[in-house]
Prior knowledge:
- The protein has helices at residues 45-51, 68-83, 99-107, 136-149, 155-168, 172-185, 190-202, 206-215, 224-243, 246-255, 260-272, 276-289, 297-309, 314-327; strands at 3-4, 37-40, 58-63, 89-94, 114-115, 117-122, 125-131.
- It is of the alpha/beta class.
- The strands form 2 sheets. The chain has a 5-stranded mixed β-sheet with strand order 2-4-3-6-7, sandwiched between helices. A two-stranded antiparallel ribbon has the order 1-5.
- The longest helix is centred in the last third of the chain and has 20 residues, at 224-243.
- Residues 1-33 have low confidence and may be disordered.
Amino acid sequence: MDYxxxxxxxxxxxxxxxxxxxxxxxxxxxxxxxxxxxxxxxxSFMRDVVEASRTIPVIVDFWATWCGPCxxxxxxxxxxxxxxxxxxxMVKIDVDKNKALVQQLxxxxxxxxxxxxxxxxxxxxxxxxxxxxxxxxxxxxxIEALLKLAxxxxxxxxxxxxxxxxxxxxxxxxxxxxxxxLLQQEPENAExxxxxxRSFLALGDTEQAQETLxxxxxxxxxxxxxxxxxxxxxxAEEGRRARQQLDSFLARLAADPDDHQAxxxxxxxxxxxxxxxxxxxxxxAIIRAAPKWNGDAARLxxxxxxxxxxxxxxxxxxxxxxxxxxxFR
Length: 329
């Protein structure tokens, strides 16, 4: 629930006063000495917010000692701001101690009828704002959007990009270490979990990949990044067995081009050898000849390939186009 500025709980129809079971420090206390998080007032607002935002994004937390939601939101803001590693600053304004400033900002169009209100400043202007106590995930998105506007990103985003580049370059060990560091910062980062699983797969350590998959938080299990890594792990196990019989599959197809099971198994072996276009073409050949073979197994396996490869992978894009042409001809 938001509270009305200038109206204490229990006055004029406002929310009833709450008596905390234990003393809770005011959100405005304990500002850091590193300049990342600080208390502000009317005298310092131009310097610490407006002028400072010309070089670094600044968020302003408008709060009050009697505001219950502020006691929830302010620590969350501080946590996310600190996780940005100095790429954004935070100024806390006690509205009861700075009523003249609140009135001035209202005249400039900043809606401060209720608190908590959080305003983001960039280049001396308000770039975005929200009111009410948001969960940490929403606060993180708010600050990420501000950093993106300013041409930056959260440190975790940099780690993720570096890890992805390392994995694509074949540096799986470095990628695994970077993804592990990312997950230390953000334990619920789906890209981090998916990337770490794929890194272990690239290292040939399917056991560690499975252990990592088992540790993924429940609410992330169906995220596209995790689902793709899970499919990649499943295909790796299938492929390991199939590669051992590659010559057998080729011999069976040479004897009988309509041996769909042999072609299906060949596709699995080819995928395990990272021959993606060839693996997709083997399954597409089955779909052309016998679309409903073995309960639509070829199409379902091809979709599993797409999930494992990623939907923007070049092999996926080409094969999806061919599959669509077959299904809608």
